[in-house]
Amino acid sequence: MAPFTWAVSFILSMFHSLLSALGMDSESGWNWTISIILLVILIRVILIPLFVRQIKSQRGMQIIQPEIQKLQAKYKGKKDPVSRQAMAQEQQALFKKHKVNPFMTCLPILAQMPIFFALFWMLNRMRQEQYQQDGYGALSPQEVQSFDGSSIFGVQMSDIFLPSFQADPTQWNVVFLAIILIICMVGSQFFTQKQLMSKNMSEAAMQGQFAQTQKIMLYMLPLVFVIGGVNFPVGVLIYWTATNFWTLGQQWWVIRNNPTPGSLAEKELNLRRAAKGLPPINEDKTAKAKDDKPKPTGKHLGQQAQPSKKKRKKK
């Protein structure tokens, strides 16, 4: 994790110095808060190619759902090792045929985890005397002391909801800010998943194992954030809340402008296009497919074949 820790600390130091040069107080907690938000924006911009691959993989998984359901019905009730291996091989062949990788659907989240843990460990070590004297990663000792001593609404970046409340139940500012951030973090995560399921899934994808997985994520991920949120430093809560809002906005734009074929979002987009006098988004593809078909010959047009003349035998 050392390379990620150094990278996170370097980016924070760079943004903190930039904001200070623009006139913000270098000791202000808002300076460090905006630096964390800018860190989120930079990371998410870098991850845009992975997000595009995630969208393509999600759509591919939705498209092949009818075939997966047929495969599951084929091996229903067969639990012997041979049948399970055969089903796994056929499923992998199906993924390869349609160029779908289920792992890509969660890759952007996994790619952010090293950044998340690097920030988490950094905030947990800010108050240690060793790092305040020697610095941490790319942060100088002065920047470490500034980060640790800065606050917003009277709450420091390294304050944690549960330990702070247990140590001093009168620290309501920590409790209130942490609860607000957790609610924003969980709410944005829930709405992002709900938006995906209600707007951007085809009718075929709303059934079967894929739909069940999406429903589990709808309720389980917010629960994970609630449990983890009470043990996250405020700086980490700011980071994860900001990245959830980025995901929500990014997904909203994709669903509105480039929806999954056969989804409710596609129907809504076509209604908006019709109101502007524009053709449906798939009309050009359909017309092109028709033009690419081979033109029918005379036999296909219903012309009758001319009878061949028979040679008369000479007497």
Key features of this structure:
single chain, 315 residues, mainly alpha, 2 domains, two-stranded antiparallel ribbon, 69% helix, 1% strand, elongated
Explain this structure:
- With 315 residues, the chain is an all-alpha fold.
- The chain has two domains: 2-64 and 100-268, no CATH class; 66-99, no CATH class.
- Helices cover 69% and strands 1% of the residues.
- It has helices at residues 2-21, 29-46, 48-63, 65-74, 81-97, 107-125, 129-134, 141-149, 161-167, 172-199, 209-229, 234-257, 264-275, 283-292; strands at residues 151-152, 155-156.
- A two-stranded antiparallel ribbon has the order 1-2.
- A hairpin with a 2-residue loop joins β1 (151-152) and β2 (155-156).
- α1 packs across α6 (107-125).
- The radius of gyration is 29 Å and the shape is elongated.
- Mean pLDDT is 79; it is low at 284-293 and 298-305.
Helix/strand layout:
Elements: H1 2-21, H2 29-46, H3 48-63, H4 65-74, H5 81-97, H6 107-125, H7 129-134, H8 141-149, E1 151-152, E2 155-156, H9 161-167, H10 172-199, H11 209-229, H12 234-257, H13 264-275, H14 283-292
Antiparallel strand pairs: 1-2
Helix pairs in contact: 1-2, 1-6, 2-12, 4-5, 6-12, 9-10, 10-11, 10-12
Main β-sheet description: 2 strands, antiparallel
Count up the domains.
Answer: 2
Element string (H = helix, E = strand): HHHHHHHHEEHHHHHH
Mean pLDDT: 79
Distance between the termini: 103 Å
| Contiguous runs where pLDDT drops below 50 for at least 5 residues | 284-293, 298-305
Which class best fits the helix and strand makeup?
mainly alpha
Tell me the number of strands.
2
Give the fraction of residues assigned to helices: 55-70%
List the strand order in the largest sheet.
Answer: 1-2
Report the principal-axis shape: elongated
Radius of gyration in whole Å, from Cα? Answer: 29 Å
The total of helices stands at: 14
| Strand content bin | under 5%
